[in-house]
Amino acid sequence: MTELAIAPPHEESLARLVVRRFFKHRLAAIALVVLGLMLLLALGASLSRYTPTEQDPANQFRSPGAGHWFGTDELGRDVFTRILYGGRISLEVGLFSTLLTIVAGVLVGALAGYYRGWLDNVLMRVTDAFLTFPTIFVLIILGSMLRDQPISWLKNSVLVVIVIIAGLSWMWPARLVRSLFLVLRERDFVAASRALGSGDMRIIFGHILPNCIGPILVSGTLQMAAAIITESGLSYLGFGVQPPTASWGSILSTAQTHVFTAPWLAVYPGVMIFITVMAINYIGDGLRDAFDPYVVYSGKKAKA
Amino acid sequence: MSRYALRRFLQAIPILLILSVLLFFMVRAAPGGPLAAAERNPNISREQIELLKKKLGLDQPLPIQYVKWLGGVFQGDLGESIKFHRPVSAMIAERIPNTLLLVGIAFLITLLIALPVGILSARRPYSFFDYCATTLTFIGQSVPVYWLGLALILVFYVNLKNPATGMPLFPSGGMNSVGQEHNLGDLLWHLVLPVTALSAEWAAWYSRFLRSNMLDVMHEDYVRTARAKGLVERVVYYKHALRNAILPLVTLIALDLPSLFAGALFVETIFSWPGMGRLFWDAARGRDYPVLLGVVLIDAVLIVGANILADLLYGVLDPRVSYD
């Protein structure tokens, strides 16, 4: 019925093709702008008149207004400033835990899928074992365990949260990459490269991996959205980023006790989480369509 | 089939054992510990603390503590809560029905929303209905459950009042009003907000999953065959395609079972619902080791069990799958 959008005859690089197709997805393009704004807000946090931990006992629970756009909290701290700094934490955790997750997952998945045999068996059993971890419970235990142990560099709760989230998420990209490698390793271009004398590492990282970039990017966006929700959730429960460091989740956790006196505390951090996660989800959707050759330019799926 | 089931169960045993070792040492390696408060208290002497440790078995080497604990587990004894001096198994047993009630009802509502929405929006993809449904699922997937809970409290407890009585429209937490322990209406009234918070996210995931399954299935050969036979599109869609699209949903639900309980943890915490999640959260804050271990272990068993169940169920439902 509709023609398939395969790469046009004039040689267009995959990157350019994907970028062009991505921006055809209007919502994804808007989402990219929104995420960019969030990033700018987080980076510009230090331009605020207030600091995130500066207390002002005379100004507790000021409702949102001219001096304090998002009001103040129970210690008189400016909520807008705390949300800007909290954005740094959330985006930092989202970005770095995703990178860590993807790197670990790609390594495990690529080795297992490429070499198969006993290595595949061992790696996949470990992956299965990690998948049976009751994630949220283990995150809480790890979070509570690491926050007051004596080693000083582990006191950095942001770093701890990044590592434990990645430690419990790498299995998903690992499985994905493995299944892609199992198929791609049988393809002719792999045989050709081997015939030319390429080593395993060159085949894995130079030839097969670039062909997996689409699904990996899409799963990366899913992972980043999940990581941001997990971080705020952990901090909300009191086992993530520790006070006085501002994080969207930790602002929410004090909000519940003050829901009558200061309802704005419960509103703004949640809206920020929601907008960020929604933007990331739409970007993922746009990437999925951009990499999918069966989606025609109108942004709709072609009927077979 | 039964041999396959047996093999899966046997395989599950070492996984659970390894898991129990990891969890045990993870929980016990935590600094602070249940006696941290007592140790900081100047009125309690060293000797008294040693005595307490001995009484709780905390003075023995960790591997010995583990073996003792595991021995108890096999006899249904999960140890005794350090804070409440009660058997952990009893504490969990009285919380399980509350969690099951919450999760069960929320799950039922989820299916009642997700099935029709997913099926109808894939019936005419990119129609107005599909567009609205897809947008709503994106919203549902992006709203964190803990914030949704808070927002519901803000709207229906803080702001909206019952015009007749001037009381909040819905309670902010708990299972019953005081003195209304056996009133079903009161219980349902308390269920509304937590169930809404839980179902919103789940319904979004499931309807999206079902929609994309339906769209995939419509490309299959048997759908083309059914059309070629001259069947009405309605029959092709609701009879031939739907059955096949729903299949993976069964696996997804079985695999999701444990994460449903994780979602319940947040909701139980926000709404002070006396379930297992709330129990775990309280235990984590009070470092009540035996309770923590008990809840995690039960959840781990649930996950492993759900995985096996999903595989077996799939074999029963899909004749193309064979086990050997």
- What is the first-to-last residue Cα distance of chain A? 7 Å
Low-confidence stretches of chain B: none
Count of DSSP strands of chain B: 0
Rg of chain B (C-alpha, Å): 25 Å
Beta-strand residue percentage of chain A: under 5%
Total strands of chain A: the figure is 0
Largest beta sheet of chain A, briefly? none
The amount of beta strand of chain B, in percent, is under 5%
Anisotropy-based shape of chain A: globular
Gyration radius of chain A, in Å: 23 Å
Portion of residues within helices of chain A: 55-70%
Count of DSSP helices of chain A?
12
Q: How far from one another are the termini of chain B?
A: 8 Å
**H/E element sequence of chain B:** HHHHHHHHHHHH
Approximate shape of chain B: flat
Quaternary status? heterodimer
Largest pleated sheet of chain B: none
State the helical fraction of chain B: over 70%
Alpha-beta classification of chain A: mainly alpha
